[in-house]
User: What shape does this take?
Amino acid sequence: MPKSKKKKTIKKKIAKRGRPRIKKEVKAKVKAKPAPPQPLIKATKKMPQLLRGFKDILPSEQKYWNLIREKAESLSLTYGFERIDLPILEETALFVRSVGKETDIVEKEIFTFTDRGGESICLRPEATASAVRAYINHGMLNLPQPVKLYYIGPMFRYDRPQSGRYRQFNQFGLEALGDFNPVLDAQIIIMCFNFFKELGIESNVQINSIGCPGCRKEYKTQLINYYKTQKSGLCEDCKNRISKNPLRLLDCKEYRCQAIAEDAPQIVDWLCDDCKNHFVKVLEFLDELEIPYNLNPYLVRGLDYYTKTVFEIWPGIGQNSASDENGAEQAAGKDAAGKKAQSALGGGGRYDNLVELLGGRPTPAVGCSIGIERTILKIKELGKDVPSQESPDIFIAQLGEAAKRKALVLFESLRNEGFKIAESFSKDGLKNQLDNANKLGVKYALILGQKELSEGTILLRDMEGGIQETINYNKIIKELRKRLGL
Ligand code: AMP
Assistant: This one.
């Protein structure tokens, strides 16, 4: 059949078939389809601003982050902790159940919202609960115990922003799940201490035991009885804490409440034999390694899931005994000005009931988390010299279009050979390029111009001495290897 005739027949067929018929129910569905949603975000002319309490981490800051990440990773691996990466969004219920309904984190600070599916989810305020969820979800209970995990990542709390306190901040955390042994509590404390020591930050350990639910029950009764007699002198938050969260009465930041806490019964006097023995053993291990610590009866930590050992790492040198005046102040959890210190670098403790609380079989565990921003602030405050990222050895400069093309190729060849190189190909002037090379502190600059191209050579400039030599282009890799001792 001729082509034109064939086309006509196809057209006819289409015309005959007409529009496809839509079944009734499909039609109904199409009709019932809701109107497309209106955009949630209205464009405004106002310049978008960084959210309060959030921070950009600029390139100039990255050297601190690299240093900390490297230290955290090498320390964790040496002590047998493996990396876990957990999601940033979790069900809100995970933290309500674990951290506790009556805690500041859940009551005031959690970033929670309903997602498009109607589920209540949140930006994680901490990662221990997530690590426990993962431990249960992935059947890690069946692996050889303890399972030792570490994580590094952002947490979110709707806190009042101030120096060292942000709404998004990062933590390096350690969790050892599946073992009761007090040596694990000690090991985690030692790791925190070593982390700061190796970063050149002096720190001390504040430590307490808040017992198990058994001994805490009797202690709480005593605590409530005492605080009922002191109610009129307490701040409004503490008045509520008497019935809601009595342990938190002990670490209130208000002076008047701190004064009342000084005469409150202390948990160590109410520990059962098991909790007492556990605590003594942890302290003995710390003594063995001469880790400076202060027994701090006011340290309770703000989260419901802790049992037995709780600790915080504070900046500065600690006292092993509370016998002198300074030691007594430190033991009371106060700084030199008599004010309760608020800038813990990290903290943690044992949480023997959390796995079961979240639906797993009874599994003891202990962990900690260290604030990365606060660690960086401390490094800066101490004026520590932090080396920049690896600086390049060689800079490639070029003059003219043809040289630029050849320089691009040379850059790739040197990169493949493993050299550390830099360039500023978008710049054309030689002075500009050599200024950049100087700023980067490279040892050698390679210069390619029209003359070198036609001669098959390249200029090799020693940036320190300023001496320039002409080298055969094909021998440049060999020459660079020799000069850099590679
Ligand atoms: P926490 O989970 O509250 O025990 O906190 C552990 C560590 O995380 C603290 O000692 C701080 O170093 C750090 N941290 C906690 N909250 C914040 C925050 N809002 N901003 C910056 N760092 C924080």
Q: What stands out?
A: The domain at 394-484 is CATH 3.40.50.800 (Rossmann fold). DSSP finds 18 helices and 16 strands in the chain. The pocket of adenosine monophosphate is lined by residues 126, 157, 159, 164-166, 169, 171, 344-347, 369, 371, 373-374 (CB under 6 Å).
